[in-house]
Structures are given as C-alpha cells and as structure tokens.
Amino acid sequence: MSNGLASVNNSFTATLKDLIEYPKQGILSKVLLKDNNCQYTLFCLAKGTEIDEHTSTRNAVVTVIEGQGILTLNNEEIALNSGVFVFMPANAPHALQAKENLAFLLTLSEHPHPKNQVSQKTIDIVKSTAPLLKQHGEKITKKMYEIMFRNHPEVKEQFDMSAQANGSQPAKLATAVYSYATQIDNLSALQSMVEKIAHRHVATYVQPEQYAIVGESLLQAIKDVLGDAATKEVMTAWTEAYQVLAEVFINREQQIYCRNNS
Ligand code: HEM
Predict the structure, then answer these.
(1) Structural domain span for residue 193
(2) What is the chain's pLDDT, residue by residue, as a tens digit (262 residues)?
(3) Residue 201 Cα to ligand 1 middle (Å)
(4) Is 249 in the same domain as 126?
(5) Are 144 and 171 in contact (CB under 8 A)?
(6) Per the domain annotation, does 10 fall within a domain?
(7) Domain edge (last residue) among 54, 74, 109
(8) Domain C-terminal end among 86, 109, 132
(9) Which of 6, 86, 164, 243 places its Cα 20 to 30 Å from the Cα of 102?
(10) What does the radius of gyration of the chain's CA atoms come to, in whole angstroms?
(11) Which string of b and e fits 102-119 if b means at least 16 CB within 10 Å?
C-alpha cells in the first residue's frame, strides 16, 4: 500500500526540515505515509495563512517543526513554535493562524469509535434488526420511556412531558435508533444527527452516568417488544452497539460542556 511519499511495506526515514517547502501564500501539504490507522502529513503554511474554525472526526496530533503560529483549540490559544506537541481529540473545534512561515507534522489517527470497535458479527446482527426497528420503533421507545420514568422518576424533570404525551419525543428517539442500526458501520453519516442530539442533551443537562439508565431501559424495551425475535445474540449485539453510541454522545457532549464553560 503506498499512499504518500513512503510505503507501509518498507521502512522510511526522512529529515522533515528537508521536506519543507513554503508556498508564496496558503498551504502546501505532503502526505508522508498513510496506513489503515494513521495518516502523517507535513503542512507548510505561508506567513499570514489562516484556517477557519473546523472539526475533524479523527484524533489529531500537531508536532511543530519550525515557525510561529497560533492554534485555537476549544477557544484556547496555543502558541505554536518549534517542538510544540498538541493533541486534539476528535470533534474538537480548532482554527490556525501562521504568524510566520510555519511547518508541522499532522498525525491523524483512527477516530475513537472506529468500525472495528464493534465486531462484524455485532454489525451484522444490529443491521438485521433494522426492519424490526422500523416496524416497532415507536412502540419500543414509548416502552423505553415508560420503563425509565418508572425506575428513575428523577430524570423526568429534564424532559418536556408534553413531547412525551404527544409522542414526538418517542418518535425522534425511534428515528435515531433506526438510523444508528442502518449506519452502525458508517458513523460519520450520523454526524449531523449526533450534533443536533448532543446539543439538545447539553441544553437539558444530560450527564454521562445517565447513559446507563437509558441503556438498560432501551434494552429492556427492545426485549419486551420484539419478544422471541430478541434472541440472546440480538441482545448481546445491541448491548455492545448501545455502548458505542453512548460513548459517541458522551464524548461530544463533554466537548460542548467544556466549550460552554470556557
Ligand atoms: C444513545 C442514547 C440516546 C439517544 C439515541 C438519544 C436520542 C435523543 C433524541 C433523538 C432526542 C431529540 C433531539 C431533538 O429534539 O432533536 C433526544 C432528546 C433528549 N434526550 Fe436523549 N438520547 C440518548 C440518551 C439520553 C440520555 C442518557 C438522557 C438522560 C436522561 C437523555 C435525555 C434527553 C432529553 C432530556 C432530551 C430532550 C427531550 C425533551 O425536550 O423533552 N437522552 N435524545
């Protein structure tokens, strides 16, 4: 496999300074190496170049080789100069300004929720339940809220109970669960959905430890509604799959809480 200056099948050595080439303006980037998990790219930014705020779905490390710049990460300004190392977790908003010509190595590593965190078997089983979730989705989510509010009445105050009564919240949750079932092996397709839900969760003060409550209620509801179709295998797969989805939300929501507090 060769997707850059080097090939993953052979060892490779370079003196990064020798590879630096500054454009007159803007950015010149060179992919040094790419494998299944990481991509190593040399970035050379001409003095004055600015990259507006954006996010990456993968963890990233900036290792500065030379020059001067400012990296704004989660609203915090970090001075970039030779030898500075910055780790940026996936989805952290960041922007960059090159005060002088600036060269750094960017290492993108596989995002924290790669496909292989869920086994192929789990993916197959979860996907096979999608038609059932489409058919019984709202029955499952209505049941889920019933179970949750019965066992944990304290969470009720976070919810708009009229959206429970008119069925709109169970319908939204059913759509989210179904979308996840169909896209479990392509989480990036769910990014806008995750963004919207995570912001709603932050607005209603959802906490990481509450994911276990929702998880146990949702799994119980799936079991109750699907009956015989909720085999041991299906339940094991959904338990694993729920944990991955919960982590996606927990991580994103922590970032939003941090940003709101800064
Ligand atoms: C993976 C698990 C979860 C999924 C898929 C999920 C999904 C959703 C969706 C689709 C919405 C509607 C967003 C909108 O209005 O556009 C929502 C809202 C909400 N969720 Fe979650 N959620 C999850 C976990 C949790 C947890 C752990 C809590 C904590 C109790 C929670 C509490 C809420 C609240 C309070 C709202 C606002 C509802 C309202 O306005 O009445 N969710 N969620």
Answers:
(1) 115-261
(2) 445 777 777 788 999 999 999 999 999 999 999 887 788 999 999 999 999 888 776 789 999 999 999 999 988 999 999 999 999 987 788 999 999 999 999 999 876 555 447 889 999 999 999 999 999 999 999 999 999 999 999 999 999 999 999 999 999 999 999 999 999 999 889 999 999 999 999 999 999 999 999 999 999 999 999 999 999 999 999 999 999 999 899 989 988 988 777 6
(3) 6
(4) yes
(5) no
(6) no
(7) 109
(8) 109
(9) 6
(10) 23
(11) bbbbbbbbbbbbeeeebe
Judgement on whether residues 171 and 234 belong to the same structural domain of the protein: yes
* 44, amino acid identity: C
Q: Which ligand 1 atom sits nearest the alpha carbon of residue 163?
A: 41
Task: Give me ligand 1 centre to Cα 227, in Å.
Answer: 25
Ligand 1 pocket residues where CB is under 6 Å: 155, 158-160, 163, 169, 172-173, 176, 196-197, 200-201, 204, 206, 210-211, 214, 245-246, 249
